[in-house]
Amino acid sequence: MGNPLLVFWMRLFGGEEEPSSRRLRRRIPFASAAQASATIFLILRRMRAPLIVLITIFAISVLGLTLIPGKDPGGQPARMGFFDAFYFMSYTATTIGFGELPNTFTYPQRLWVTITIYLTVIGWAYAIGSLLGLLQDRAFRHALALQHFTRKVARLREPFLLIAGYGQTGELLGRSLDALGRRFVVIDRAAERIDALELDPYHADVPGLAGDAGNSGHLGVAGLGHPYCEGVLALTDDDEVNLAVAMAAALLRPELPVIARTISPAIADRMRAFGTPSVVNPFDCFGDHLSIALRAPATYQLMMWLEDGPGAELPPRGRPPAAGGWVMCGYGRFGRELTADLRAEGLEVCVIEPRSPATGDISVVAGDGFEPGVMARAGIEHAVGFVAGTDNDTTNLSLIAAARRVNPKVFVAARQNKPATAPLFAAMGVDSLLVPTEVIAHEVYAQLSTPLLWRFLQELPARGDEWAARLIDRLTDQCGRHLPALWKVRLTAVEAPALQSWLTAGDARLGDLLRSPEDRELRLEAVPLLVLHGDNCVLAPEDDLVLAPGDEILLAGRSTARRDLETTMVIDATREYVLSGRHVPASWIWRKLARPGSREEPRLAAQEVSRPGHHPWPRRGPHAAGGGRPRGRRRAGGPSGG
Amino acid sequence: MNLEKVIFGFFVLLAATLNFGFFIGDIAESLLHNVYELFAAIVVSLIATVLKFGDRTQIGAVHLATSLVADLQLIAAALVWGYASYVSSAGLTPHATASVVSLSGGALFANVVSVVLLVVETVSFHRR
């Protein structure tokens, strides 16, 4: 299997893992497609009158010309034939005008031609005007766009994601997915956003449909029934629509993973009633993130960095406040979630809210935060943290200003609702900013980019702050302050054919694999983040970790490192150099010629030379089975060939 | 009474009758086939075709197809006639006339199918 051609063959025809799961269970009705063809029929119907007028005018003109007597050059009476008449009318009506052919016209003929010229100009103007009017017609253009979209989606021949809702979140996520080389199809209610899609600098072509995502017909057209659809993302800002999308996906394609956005726990419950969608609640996420940020700033920094996607700069490490009281302005859905999270961290929270809610044991100050005296009553001067969490950006900004006037050193967390106010919040220098759209995009990206990254992020908080800080140092040492690409390798027979014998030998150290094929004394510029062995995972494994066949490794590193590692995994000669430092011929014939008379596999001998202290002989292969241990030892020691 | 149906039936039937009028007579004798009748047949057939645009029913689709066939045949006949009369040095020989008339005969068959469809449509409409 060391032969790249064989690997290619295996990839083409050997993979029997995926297709069965992609089988389409049932057809999704294409209501919208029928609608589109209906519009085209309507357009054809509307072209009837102009076309008939044109045909009639033409027929009358030609007939008249053939009937009216003319004269040939000799003065003899001669009538125009149909061919001459048709020819003449064709060039006259289209305003080309070659002159009077075949003979100079008589006055009766000229009279008739004068009439026909005006008639045909009217006929053409009417027909062309109607046609242009139809092309401008909104319904017609929409029908054309729908047909175009349907064709594009139907022709997709690689796995794609169906994204319902292309607002802020969809755009952010789309860019990250595109950078990963993933395909996706977009459906959004606003036509402007779909138009904007064409201007976005994506590598791949992104089909976009302007339509209601809650309509299952539209979802069907957008590829819900497509065999290559690999997931559905409901990211609209309307919870009802997201619920409808999640429902449609769960009922029509139960095997597809669904990620849905919502800010309401009730809607989340209703979504979970259909299958097992992964529900992303930005307020919930932010609460979790904030409590991690307060407890372990380095862990939080690492999480944010990895979720930002390739190329992101290392975010600054926050300085969390000491334990103490918090003041929360706004007690809506966000306020409730965050208060619960902060109290779970053991912090005192005082809520400022105009309408006094029935909250039980939470201390509430009634009033607006920016009114004089209210902040003081909530105890802002002794508080360590302040949250501006209303759904109005102007209010949030003035709340922050009011809080800082009283207590300049307070830790400020704020919620930014509209993208337009982003510069204002940046100028304010908020310590922890919630932008719901970004939180969702990052969360969904982490779930989708590779399953191992999601696993990594799940396990990360349990590792502690110092561990995360060390890993950040390792990453910045190896790859700089911009997040390198994250990728996954699987040490299976298909993806790593050259490594199989090394892996099964039982002494496959991770550090050996990550040497550079150019100079094995150098390390590849890649950091292993996670090794998944069966169901156990090792986070940030050390170099002496022993690998086994079938392990999956999540790596962060430059793309050159990725290519180098792939070479090591596939090509025998490179593998041999990287693992043992020996140069072996790449082709089978040269290998045979290089060691005439030897029936041993070169790599086994090589391994023994490179690691004399470890296993003297791997316990597998024909030699071990034949019980030839002493003979093998003798041969490896002195290759006399006897 | 539906005016649209009247106009539609009128043109379909007129296309067939004009076509028949041109077609009837000795196939090689040009005196028996008036070229004005061919012209009228083409024009009426084109109008009938346009009238059939935009009908979504199955029978409407077949209607349109037959009309397109008739147009094609008639226009081919006109082209042969034009070639024989103006381009070819031999003029409108019996051979050329036979070609023109037989092409229009093909169109006649398509027009007959059109009429049959019209009748079928009408009858089935009454039965409902």
Would you mind describing this structure in some detail?
- Chain A is of the alpha/beta class.
- Chain A is 50% helix and 14% strand.
- Chain A has 4 domains: 36-136, Helix Hairpins (Orthogonal Bundle); 156-280, NAD(P)-binding Rossmann-like Domain (Rossmann fold, 3-Layer(aba) Sandwich), CATH 3.40.50; 297-451, Rossmann fold (3-Layer(aba) Sandwich), CATH 3.40.50; 484-634, 2-Layer Sandwich (Alpha-Beta Plaits), CATH 3.30.70.
- In chain A, the strands form 5 sheets. In chain A, strands 5-4-3-6-7-8 form a 6-stranded parallel β-sheet, sandwiched between helices. In chain A, strands 11-10-9-12-13-14 form a 6-stranded parallel β-sheet.
- In chain A, strand 13, helix 18 and strand 14 form a beta-alpha-beta unit.
- In chain A, helix 3 crosses helix 7, helix 11 packs parallel to helix 12 (265-272) and helix 24 (559-570) packs across helix 25 (572-580).
- Chain A is flat.
- Chain B is an all-alpha fold and 128 residues long.
- Chain B has helices at residues 3-23, 35-51, 58-87, 94-127.
- Chain B starts with a helix and ends with a helix.
- Chain B: The chain crosses the membrane at residues 7-25, 31-51, 63-84, 96-120.
- Chain B: Keywords: Membrane, Transmembrane, Transmembrane helix.
- Chain A: Residues 323-434 form the RCK N-terminal domain.
Q: Pairing-aware structural class of the strands and helices of chain B?
A: mainly alpha
pLDDT averaged residue by residue of chain B: 89
Strand order of the largest sheet of chain A: 5-4-3-6-7-8
Kindly state the number of beta strands of chain B: 0
Tell me the radius of gyration of chain A. Answer: 37 Å
Number of domains of chain B: 1
Number of helices of chain A: 29
Work out the number of β strands of chain A.
20
Domain module count of chain A: 4
N-end to C-end Cα span of chain A: 32 Å
* Range of strand content of chain B: under 5%
Main structural class of chain A: alpha/beta
Estimated helix fraction of chain B: over 70%
Largest interface comes to:
A-B, 22 and 18 residues
- Low-confidence regions of chain A: 14-25, 597-642
Strand content of chain A: 5-15%
Oligomer: heterodimer
